[in-house]
Amino acid sequence: MSHKRSRQSFSSSAPFQQHGRLTAVLGPTNTGKTHFAIERMLGHRSGMIGLPLRLLAREVFDKIVRLKGQADCALITGEERIIPPFPRYFVCTVEAMPVDIPVAFLAVDEIQLATDLERGHVFTDRLLHARGEEETMWLGALTMKGAITRVAPATHFITRPRFSDLAYTGPKKLSRLPRRSAIVAFSVEDVYGLAETVRSQRGGAAVVLGALSPRTRNAQVALYQSGEVDFLIATDAIGMGINMDVDHVAFAARDKFDGVTVRPLKPEEIGQIAGRAGRFMNDGTFGVTGDTDPFDAELVAQIENHRYDPVKVLQWRNSDLDFSSLDALLFSLDTLPPARGLIKARPVSDHWTLQSLSRDDDIRDVIRAPAAVRLLWQACQLPDFRKLTPDEHTKLVGQIFQHLMSPEGVLPEDWLARQIARLDVVDGEVDTLSARLAQIRTWTYAAHRQGWTRDPAHWQAVTRAVEDRLSDALHERLTQRFIDRRTALLMRHLRDEEQLALVLDDSGAVSLGSEHVGKLDGFRFAPDPRAEGIHGRTLRAAALKGLEGEIAARARALAAATDDAIHLSEHAQLWWSGAVVAKLAPGPHKLTPTVELIADDLLKGELRESVQARLETWVAAHIAHVLDPLTALRDAAESKTLSDGTTLPGPARGLAFQLAENLGQLERENSALPLDLRTAAHALRPFGVRVGRRSIFLPRLIKPAPSALAALLWAVHARLTHIPPPPQPGLTSFALDADNGSEAGDAFLAAAFYRRLGTRAVRLDILERIESVLVEAAQLSKNAADTMTVLVSLLGCAKEDVTAIAAALGWRQIMRVQKGAEPSEPIPVWQRARPHGRGRKGSSARQAVPDSPFARLAELI
């Protein structure tokens, strides 16, 4: 009896006509059901198997081709048809099964999808009507046993136990998930977001989405299966028979969009996905990750024991359609189920596209015969690969139908070529390539529809080539975006406890195989900055594992290094062999900073102590050598007796302590100086101490190296985060910028033996000479213009700047007649300005009586 007659008999109340043995192989995941069905099919003279996913169909097809050869096997999906002249075995998606072709064996996998709101009616139709002449087999969950018994009482049931145990391990952070984990989300955005996170924390992940082409999906799975990455980020597509070596399944969400609303996952759906953990005899685990709420004890028990509520109703849509008119077709699609246990399916893409087009007058005008109605229904069954809007999809279907109803009767070749050409571009990022790949699937589907193109083989080859190019480009972008090969490679070596074959070149660059992973800078490993998001601690641990010997050798070399091999930079860093190995930090005294090593943890024990001791010795010797006058003065202040057996007097010792504390310089007016300063200064003369008009200092330190080091030591002790550069050597004065004008800037300048006067800094020895020149000029009433020439030469700046500096020192120019000079015209001379309110000797001036002659004299003065 024909397939059509069997459906008619069902619709007229008879269940169905049987064609051979009916078998249902039921059980949880990892029971070998699909493998069992393939073996049974290949034992028959011919067979057909319907699978839930195009990806899975391609996988099974490739397997059968390897076993039986290409001539015996056909692949039929919505977007792909490989049909040799006389195939014996057909591998199909359930929707694309050519059930009118007689075969000895027929199987439908994942039959429990008969409850799915979107596709369930197709699986129900295959359960009711698709038959093999000798054997029909349904594969699925145990929950289907009652439903199958109701529609096919003669079915022989085979229950297969799971090969391995499945256990719940609770919540885990992404960074703590075990290797060989699959992380499940339910949107493309979530999958990509998780993949980005796993890349940054664990080196990378492969991604599997139902929307990927088989070529891209297989390439991604190969990355995971090969061990190049240890993590797989996927949608629930992995729950449908795609076999991979997954040890743990982590749910990053518990809700999914089912085409109408976002709803919680059903226990059996969770079990179907979680069951992908464990392969053959290997046990598996499942849990949650991220912000997902943990599973409660009752749900865990259901999943671990594979016990779910039985299926009560199956989705059903009439498949005995009436094509006599458009209205008749719509009416037949709305037919109610013929038996209990079946529920009318909600309208899905093809149905609501037909409803929309039926309201289009232009469409109705061209439908004049049943063949046109049938053709419109075929066009409406074009899947909405693009997932734009229902209106956009309806518009495209209407356009295709209008072309098919034109006098040519096929899609115009120039129009089809333009649609394909605009998609044949491999530039762009993941989202762009994914969108193009989704669109080319539309034209791949069209090229495989019988009668839609004038040269089907040509257009199938064209669309396949474009899809392959886009698939390869998408795989490459996914790999670039979601896999950091450096981290993945290093983590794989760590995982396998292999000896890292690291290569270290003369510049310190570290490579593992062909991958540059970073640089060994002194005793510190710096990961390659180009590897964005790398988990730094993991990368350092991996690289250092292979650098232990090199670090030990460097430590021994530094411990034995000569003084001239070590250098102190103006940023307080200690350099050795072209690398920073330590930095100075505040110590108990400005002259005794501490040394902080810059090294990874592998520099430890005696080697670390020897490096620390060598650098501390060098720093102490360097300070003692460069600041010799100052360290000698400090030692004298701290010693009870000098080398000649004498002792410093108390006032001299106090002054020496102050000078050592201030790194060799003191301002006279701001310091607590001893009362008998002349005696103290005389005692310190052998140490080179000079008592000037403005400052007390050690002139021998006013050289580039000592002054720079003194300023650096002050900055280290003051804990400056940014140490300014020292004044340029040889400058007697220089203009100050905004930074130098701060309080910290003034103190830094003082440590370098400069004083701020207005907008310029003046060196201490020059400051004393300026003061002497001005005093002498004032005493001799020299012409200020002549004195200005000397001052400009000393300061190296403009006259305006000299005037401002003199003013800051308390000097001004006045007009005065020189004694005995001819003619007796006044000339400018320098005069010290008295501070406001101070008398001739610094005592407070008395207030003059307002009406007295002294008050009048004060006004004249």
Give a description of the structure.
There is one protein chain. Helix 11 packs across helix 14 (390-404), helix 20 runs parallel beside helix 21 (605-626) and helix 22 crosses helix 23 (650-661). This protein is an alpha/beta fold. Residues 1-17 and 836-861 have low confidence and may be disordered. It has 30 helices and 34 strands. The strands form nine sheets. It has an eight-stranded mixed beta sheet with strand order 4-3-5-2-6-7-1-8, sandwiched between helices. The protein has a six-stranded parallel beta sheet with strand order 9-16-13-10-12-11, sandwiched between helices.
Radius of gyration: 46 Å
Strand order of the largest sheet: 4-3-5-2-6-7-1-8
How many helices in DSSP terms? 30
| Terminal CA distance | 136 Å
The largest sheet, given as strand count, sense and whether it forms a barrel, is:
8 strands, mixed
Shape designation: elongated
Spans of at least 5 consecutive residues whose pLDDT stays below 50 are 1-17, 836-861
What is the topological layout?
Layout: H1 3-11, E1 21-26, H2 33-42, E2 47-51, H3 54-68, E3 73-76, E4 81-82, E5 89-93, E6 105-108, H4 120-129, E7 135-140, H5 145-151, E8 156-159, E9 166-172, E10 181-184, H6 188-202, E11 206-208, H7 214-225, E12 231-234, E13 248-251, E14 255-257, E15 262-264, H8 267-274, E16 284-289, H9 297-305, E17 314-316, H10 326-333, E18 342-344, H11 349-358, H12 361-366, H13 370-380, H14 390-404, H15 413-421, H16 430-447, H17 456-482, H18 485-496, E19 502-504, E20 509-512, E21 515-521, E22 524-527, H19 536-545, H20 548-559, E23 566-568, E24 573-576, E25 579-589, E26 592-597, H21 605-626, H22 628-638, H23 650-661, E27 665-667, H24 677-684, E28 690-691, E29 695-697, H25 704-717, E30 733-735, H26 743-751, E31 754-757, E32 760-763, H27 764-780, H28 784-795, H29 799-808, E33 811-817, E34 826-832, H30 853-860
Parallel strand pairs: 1-7, 1-8, 2-5, 2-6, 3-5, 6-7, 9-16, 10-12, 10-13, 11-12, 13-16, 17-18
Antiparallel strand pairs: 3-4, 14-15, 19-20, 20-21, 21-22, 23-24, 24-25, 25-26, 27-29, 28-29, 30-32, 31-32, 33-34
